[in-house]
Every structure is written in C-alpha cells, then in structure tokens.
Amino acid sequence: MHILSVSTSTIAAWHEDLITTGACGYAAVEWAVYAINRVNTGGGGTAGELLSWGKEKLDFFHLELRSWAGKTGKSPLSLPSLSPDGIEKH
Q1: Mind listing the pLDDT tens digit for each residue in 63-76?
Q2: Structural domain count of the chain
Q3: What is the pTM (predicted TM-score) of this model?
Q4: Least crowded by CB within 10 Å, which of 6, 29, 66, 83?
C-alpha cells in the first residue's frame, strides 16, 4: 500500500509514468462508454477512437505490470479483464 497526497508520495518515481498511463487508459475507456450515443463535436467516430486509444494504453499498462512481476517474482495487481469491446468483465 502506498501513500499519495498533495505533499507526499511513497510511489517510486520510476512507477509514476506507468501509473499515469494506466489511469489514462481506464479514464479513456470509461469516457468512451459514456460517449456512445451522445452528441459530441468530434464526430461519430469519437467514442470508438477514444476506446481504441484507451485499450492501447491499458494493454501497455498490463504488459508492463506483468513484466515487472516477472522480474521481481511478485504477482501483479489483480487487474480486471476487459472484453473485446472494452467493457470491464466481472
């Protein structure tokens, strides 16, 4: 477990980019799901493009976590799996 606040963080500096990538990926997938069937200024393909970008970031995030786990011998975080359409499966 880590501490993350305005003034302090126990997260290693070299993990910050990876954590940010994962957060961006999850946010993009969530926003893409929200944007389906809504009017937006980006055009009809906006939700699909956002979903694709988000899935790309999450694929990288998951790959790096598994790579790190293999190097350290520690198991990666318990990650939710995504269906092909980017919706989280439970």
Answers
A1: 998 888 778 776 65
A2: 1
A3: 0.69
A4: 6
